[in-house]
């Protein structure tokens, strides 16, 4: 038997019972489609999360003011970080840029419109730490920080929500009745793990603390964000910062840190691991439907062997060897599985790309391995589900088979 | 002088089948006969006499429990299933009572089937099969499916399939059983012609004396034993007298 004979015989057998073959193929289509879509969902989620954290920079470290212990009592409210801490950290050799950060909510008023957004008090180096490029105008400078000037850099989305022109530089907004002059608008950065990067107002940290919050501790900040040089070792710098801050905050050995150091690289690695497991879970769930599809093929092939007992008898009587019968039935199950896998692959990729890109607006990565997976599934499922029926068919006694009605 | 070639030798063939309740039922007892090339032999006997079991062994579809069966000098008693399949494919053409054609394959595909298992190239298969269809007068029906044909045409397709492998032996099991008398006689005349003109050995299983009359030799089996082996008697009564005489002995 040539390969052409095997394929022709398989196709004639499959097409001879169209509805049953279609329903069996449907099981594999759904199974492979589910796996392909779940792979795409998993990869998209993984990519989005990775991109969001990567946009912050893996060489970025954020120090948050944490619980302070006063006389053995933990207090979570106290802001333990100061702009002086930031200044000391800035002197570490591996630190490229540092900015104290104070975050607060803000009701921004522009003309008769208002918009609720987040307000970030920072230093000019915040642009380096967060990789902010300007679309219009400029970021505030050290003088503005020193003078607690009422300058604001407004996110493009915030500007749009307030109904401003494309270039709002020079416009005046009011925050808590304090007028701020817009001096710049950054380029769009999209969303990150920390929320929208385009919907915020950035002002000098001193302005936020002194003019808006009227803080009794104008130097205290909720966070310090810093960027390291590319070749810096995050863990070494973290140890240095930890030692430095513990010393500055006069923490005794055994005392808990009154700050938390968040290493974006570490977070990214953790998130990658978590999303990896998530992806595996999704694929495992989808694989169940594939398993059901495979059982469907095996069921069909077993029924087919029973129905075609006489045909098998005829073939054996005129000279078919056991291996010929095995190959024929295996080829049929592989062909069913292959057809189902290819259709499932096309529909799965089409749905994932179509829904992802055009409806949800995500860039769905197209990877080759669903294709490899589908072909592998086609062969493995076809073989696994066809072996038992094929052997059963090959072992049929030709005399009994010829008598079968 | 023409040399006689022995193609089948059955020597003390016994066959028994295991019973579900235990033990075994013997259906053939020391069956012994030879068949030479070019013979047209009818194996006759009533239902349950063992003639089908005998045919299965001759056709290498089954092996004897004891005894020696040689086909073209090869003892097939201890052959594996695949070796038996090769023997069937190369030496024997089967014609069955109910035709045993594949209903969803065209007439041409059915005729080509044994050639496919023999490993013949697709082009040669088509040429050979068309030639066989022409020989049985069905060359215009090669694209038909068996259910579209009459019983006689189906049996001619089965004969074309049996002839396609160029066998030395055609084994026909009640070949006219599913046909009316006109078509049946047509098929039997065709067998006669094949035997006479092409020298093909034909063994035909039947339970009807009239059909056996087309053969040159009759082997009568009764209760698993041969009780007549010789020329075709002049009538069924004559056969009965001969078999009764042997039974009395």
Compact overview of the structure:
The complex is a heterodimer of chains A (405) and B (249). Chain A is of the alpha+beta class.
Instruction: Give the ordered list of helices and strands of chain A.
Output: HHEEEEHEEHEHEHEEEEEHEEHEHHHHH
Number of strands of chain B: 10
Domain module count of chain A: 2
Percent of residues in helices of chain B:
25-40%
- Spatial strand sequence of the major β-sheet of chain A: 5-6-13-8-10-9
Tell me the name of the CATH homologous superfamily of chain B: P-loop containing nucleotide triphosphate hydrolases
Helix content of chain A: 40-55%
> What is the makeup of the main sheet of chain A?
6 strands, mixed, barrel
The unreliable regions of chain B are none
> Which percent band covers the strand fraction of chain B?
25-35%
Instruction: Give the radius of gyration of chain B.
Output: 18 Å
Rg value of chain A: 33 Å
CATH architecture of chain B: 3-Layer(aba) Sandwich
Mean pLDDT of chain A: 86
Q: Tell me the total number of β-strands of chain A.
A: 16
Strand order of the largest sheet of chain B: 6-7-8-3-9-10
What's the main sheet of chain B like?
6 strands, mixed
Q: First CA to last CA of chain B: what distance?
A: 38 Å
CATH topology annotation of chain B: Rossmann fold
Description:
The complex is a heterodimer of chains A (about 400) and B (about 250). Chain A is an alpha+beta fold and about 400 residues long. Chain A has two domains: about 5-55 and about 270-405, no CATH class; about 65-255, no CATH class. Chain A contains 13 helices and 16 strands. In chain A, the strands form four sheets. Chain A has a six-stranded mixed barrel with strand order 5-6-13-8-10-9. In chain A, strands 2-3 form a two-stranded antiparallel sheet. In chain A, strands 4-14 form a two-stranded antiparallel sheet. The longest helix of chain A is centred in the C-terminal third of the chain and has 44 residues, at about 265-305. Chain B is an alpha/beta fold and about 250 residues long. Chain B has a single domain (about 5-250), classed as P-loop containing nucleotide triphosphate hydrolases (Rossmann fold, 3-Layer(aba) Sandwich). Chain B is about 40% helix and about 25% strand. Chain B has helices spanning about 50-60, 80-90, 105-120, 120-135, 150-165, 180-200, 210, 235-249, and strands at about 5-20, 25-35, 40-45, 65-70, 75, 90-95, 170-175, 200-205, 215-220, 225-230. In chain B, the strands form two sheets. Chain B has a six-stranded mixed beta sheet with strand order 6-7-8-3-9-10, sandwiched between helices. In chain B, helix 3 (about 105-120) runs parallel beside helix 5 and helix 5 (about 150-165) runs parallel beside helix 6. The chains are: A alpha+beta (about 400), B alpha/beta (about 250).
